[in-house]
C-alpha cells in the first residue's frame, strides 16, 4: 500500500505523532479560519490541538483506518512544511465502492492551488489504486474557499443536502459534489496535465 503521494509541488503523507508541534502551530493560528466549517468536538473529549497524546491517538486511529481500508488520511506538505490535510473518509466497499473526501489548508497557503493539486492526487489514488467508484465532497454553501477548489476541478454538483451535517453546533446544509470512476477516466489526462 502506497503511504505517500507526490504531486508537482506537494507531498501527501499520513501524519505521525512527531508532527504534533507543526500541526498545532497551524491549527492554533487558523482557529477562526477553520473551526466554523468543522464538526464540534464531543463534550469532555480531549482537544488534539492542545493535547499531544490526543493527537497521537488521532494518528494511530488514522493508521488503523489505513490497515482496515476504511479511511486514508494525509497531511499536506509544501517544501517540507506542513500546511493542511486531505482525508478520504468512510470508505465503503461491496456494491457502493465509495468514499467522502474532505480537506483544509492553512489560510496563509490558500489560493495557491495546493488543495486542488492534493485533491487530484487523492482522486488518482482512489480510482487507480483503491479501485473506488465514486468520491463525494460536501461543502457548506457559504464556504467560498472550499467551493473554489471544486470549481477549479469542475466537479459535478449534485445539489444541496438539507441539514446534512452538524457543523460547529448547527445542522448545516451542504452542496454535494461528486466524481465517478467513469468521469475520472474521461478527464484523467486533463486533471494530470493541469495539476500533476
Q: How do the strands and helices of this protein lay out in sequence?
A:
Elements: E1 5-6, E2 10-13, H1 20-29, H2 31-35, H3 52-68, E3 72-78, E4 81-92, E5 98-105, H4 114-128, E6 134-139, H5 144-153, E7 156-167, E8 170-180, H6 181-195
Parallel strand pairs: 5-6
Antiparallel strand pairs: 1-2, 2-3, 3-4, 4-5, 6-8, 7-8
Helix pairs in contact: 4-6
Task: Give a short summary of the structure.
With 196 residues, the protein is an alpha+beta fold. It has helices at 20-29, 31-35, 52-68, 114-128, 144-153, 181-195; strands at residues 5-6, 10-13, 72-78, 81-92, 98-105, 134-139, 156-167, 170-180.
Features:
196 residues, alpha+beta, Aminopeptidase, eight-stranded mixed beta sheet, 8 strands, 32% strand
What does this structure look like?
Strands 1-2-3-4-5-6-8-7 form an eight-stranded mixed beta sheet, sandwiched between helices. Helix 4 crosses helix 6. It is built from six helices and eight strands; from the N terminus they run E-E-H-H-H-E-E-E-H-E-H-E-E-H. The mean pLDDT is 95. The radius of gyration is 16 Å and the shape is globular. It has helices spanning 20-29, 31-35, 52-68, 114-128, 144-153, 181-195; strands at 5-6, 10-13, 72-78, 81-92, 98-105, 134-139, 156-167, 170-180. It has one domain: 3-Layer(aba) Sandwich (Aminopeptidase). The chain has 196 residues and is α+β, with helices and mostly antiparallel strands.
Amino acid at each position: 500500500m502506497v503511504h505517500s503521494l507526490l504531486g508537482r509541488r506537494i507531498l501527501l503523507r499520513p501524519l505521525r505523532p512527531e508532527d504534533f508541534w507543526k500541526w498545532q502551530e497551524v491549527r492554533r493560528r487558523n482557529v477562526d479560519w477553520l473551526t466554523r466549517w468543522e464538526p464540534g468536538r464531543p463534550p469532555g473529549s480531549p482537544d488534539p490541538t492542545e493535547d499531544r497524546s490526543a493527537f497521537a491517538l488521532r494518528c494511530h486511529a488514522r493508521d488503523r483506518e489505513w490497515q482496515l481500508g476504511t479511511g486514508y488520511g494525509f497531511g499536506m506538505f509544501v517544501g517540507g512544511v506542513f500546511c493542511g490535510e486531505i482525508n478520504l473518509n468512510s470508505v465503503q466497499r461491496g456494491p457502493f465502492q465509495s468514499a467522502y473526501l474532505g480537506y483544509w489548508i492553512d489560510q496563509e497557503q490558500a489560493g495557491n492551488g495546493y488543495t486542488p493539486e492534493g485533491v487530484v492526487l487523492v482522486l488518482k489514488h482512489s480510482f487507480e489504486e483503491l479501485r473506488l467508484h465514486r468520491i463525494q465532497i460536501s461543502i457548506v454553501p457559504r464556504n467560498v474557499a472550499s467551493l473554489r477548489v471544486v470549481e477549479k476541478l469542475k466537479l459535478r454538483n449534485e445539489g444541496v443536502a438539507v441539514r446534512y451535517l452538524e457543523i460547529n453546533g448547527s445542522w448545516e446544509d451542504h452542496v454535494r459534489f461528486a466524481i465517478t470512476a467513469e468521469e475520472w477516466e474521461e478527464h484523467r489526462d486533463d486533471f494530470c496535465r493541469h495539476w500533476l
